[in-house]
Design goal:
Elements: E1 2-5, H1 7-14, H2 18-28, E2 33-37, H3 38-50, H4 54-66, E3 70-73, H5 77-89, H6 94-106, E4 110-112, H7 119-123, E5 128-130
Parallel strand pairs: 1-2, 1-4, 2-3, 4-5
Helix pairs in contact: 1-2, 1-3, 5-6
């Protein structure tokens, strides 16, 4: 399965949530793929440092740099344009707009999140939220 990660996923992973661990294993074993926006990396670093989880941060940083199953996606002009439109039309924070635009542009439609801001796009079948 092709996933796009919201920061929520990495927080769940750091907390050892079984479903997050299962998806992470699926990705590491090559049965799944993960797209991660650079803004999600920045937000994850902030959250993990805030929670004093440097060990988890180091592990994730290594995975981002070495795994062929994880694609780190820069915010391009196209993604930024779409993110602004999503943020406006769906009344969502710009970071969520960037994540949604990244998921759609990369064709990684399964967003690992429990965020309600994605519901309009989910109803339009542009993305699917994967949460537990």
């Amino acid at each position: 399965m092709r996933y796009c990660a919201d920061t929520w996923f990495f927080i769940q992973l750091a907390n050892g949530h079984p479903k997050a661990l299962e998806i992470w294993k699926e990705i590491k074993d090559g049965k799944g793929r993960l797209a991660v926006s650079t803004v999600v990396i920045a937000e994850t670093i902030k959250q993990l440092l805030r929670k004093n989880l440097q060990k988890d941060l180091e592990s994730l940083s290594n995975a981002f740099g070495t795994s062929e199953k994880i694609t780190v996606v820069d915010v391009t002009n196209e993604i930024a344009n779409e993110a602004g439109k999503f943020s406006y039309s769906q009344d969502m924070p710009i970071i969520d707009g960037i994540i949604q635009a990244t998921a759609i542009s990369m064709n990684y439609p399964n967003i690992l999140t429990n965020d309600e801001h994605y519901k309009p796009a989910e109803r339009q079948k542009l993305i699917k939220r994967v949460f537990w």
